[in-house]
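ARCHIVE CARD
Drawer: 12
Card no.: 0347
Subject: one protein chain, sequence and derived structure
Cross-reference: see card 0346
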Amino acid sequence: MVGFAVLQGPLAHLKHITSPERLPFSGAYFGSLALTLYFAIARQAYLPTLICAIVQCAALVTYFLSNFPGGTTTLIFGARMATRGAGAVSGFLLCSRPTRLRADWPPFSCPVPPRLRSLPSPF
């Protein structure tokens, strides 16, 4: 939330989160924030702290989704691109361990997707 406050300006952000259509979110977020701190510090109760933290995270995600430029469409597109890239890199890294000591390339122990076969050798 601080990032949005910096981008929008503190007063504009304060007016935004206290507008009538945003008051339910603001109440849920700041109320759950206060209750999370109360249950964690004063009462030291695990279950109420966990419940309030989950409500706080849900309110923060809702706020982030509603204020992100491009909305959920942009976030879904970005998440797909990130998971594709992470999947390709993690699959490459997980499968690139040699099973035997030989000088031939590729020393993969699992099938290599065609798009990774064209990558230059890191060795």
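Annotation on reverse: The chain has a mean pLDDT of 78. Residues 1-67 form one domain.
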